[in-house]
């Protein structure tokens, strides 16, 4: 009777594992219809493996070919990401080089623009480059000095002319007075000569 109970228990255990296996197999078949290792993201492939794996005593039993396939897919994805990173780095280097070239061009254009503005705002005087504001200041300063010298020379010349005219007038007066003096001297000399002659005549 004990033997019969043992056999009965074994039959129950075998029946339980059989039902569990077929139940997991049916669940695996249903899950396999909703996923694949040949397409989809790494996350969806992992979900597919998890859902399609057999369950035994709170553990998942994953088939080796699925795990290898998943590993190959992960490696392929990592390689693709690495190639994309390399391509992006190459693009970044190319963009940086292009930006440096553009910056150099911009600096050159700015220098040429500043030079053009400087040339427009300045010109050469006696071989020296002078800006227009400086030239205007210099021009008006020289003009003011020349005007001042012209006015000063005019008044000085006018003063000298007045002095010369006065000198000529004084010279003319002196000359006239000298002529009068000479005339009076001659007349006085003649008078003295006549008086002397009269005295001589009287003494004879």
Secondary structure: elements and pairs:
Layout: H1 2-32, H2 42-52, E1 54-56, E2 59-61, H3 64-120, E3 122-125, E4 128-131, H4 132-203
Antiparallel strand pairs: 1-2, 3-4
Give me the secondary-structure category: mainly alpha
Number of domains: 2
Strand content: 5-15%
Let me know the largest β-sheet: 2 strands, antiparallel
Give the low-confidence spans.
13-33
Query: How much is the radius of gyration in Å?
Result: 66 Å
Strand order of the largest sheet: 1-2
Provide a count of the helices. Answer: 4
Mean pLDDT: 74
Helix content: over 70%
What is the helix/strand order?
HHEEHEEH
Mass-distribution shape: rod-shaped
Q: Distance between the terminal alpha carbons, to the nearest Å? A: 228 Å
Count of β-strands? 4
Structural commentary:
By secondary structure, this protein is mainly α. It is rod-shaped, with a radius of gyration of 66 Å. The chain has 4 helices and 4 strands. The strands form 2 sheets. A two-stranded antiparallel sheet has the order 1-2. The chain has a two-stranded antiparallel ribbon with strand order 3-4. It has 2 domains: 2-95, no CATH class; 131-193. The protein starts with a helix and ends with a helix.
TL;DR?
This protein is mainly alpha-helical.
From the structure above, extract its key features.
4 strands; 7% strand; 2 domains; rod-shaped; 204 residues; two-stranded antiparallel sheet; two-stranded antiparallel ribbon; mainly alpha; single chain
């Amino acid at each position: 009777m004990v033997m019969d109970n043992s056999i009965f228990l074994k039959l129950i255990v075998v029946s339980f594992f059989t039902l569990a296996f077929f139940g997991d197999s049916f669940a695996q078949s249903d899950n396999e219809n909703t996923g694949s290792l040949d397409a989809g993201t790494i996350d969806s492939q992992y979900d597919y493996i998890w859902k399609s794996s057999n369950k035994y005593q709170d553990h998942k039993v994953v088939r080796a070919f699925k795990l290898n396939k998943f590993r190959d897919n992960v490696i392929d994805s990592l390689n693709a990401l690495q190639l994309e990173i390399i391509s992006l780095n190459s693009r970044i280097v190319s963009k940086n080089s292009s930006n440096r070239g553009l910056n150099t061009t911009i600096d050159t254009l700015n220098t040429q623009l500043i030079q053009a503005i400087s040339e427009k705002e300045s010109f050469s005087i006696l071989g020296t480059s002078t800006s227009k504001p400086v030239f205007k200041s210099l021009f008006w300063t020289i003009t003011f000095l020349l005007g001042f010298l012209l006015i000063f020379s005019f008044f000085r010349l006018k003063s000298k002319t007045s002095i010369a005219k006065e000198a000529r007038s004084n010279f003319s007066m002196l000359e006239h007075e000298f002529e009068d003096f000479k005339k009076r001297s001659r007349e006085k000399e003649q008078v003295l000569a006549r008086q002397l002659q009269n005295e001589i005549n009287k003494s004879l």
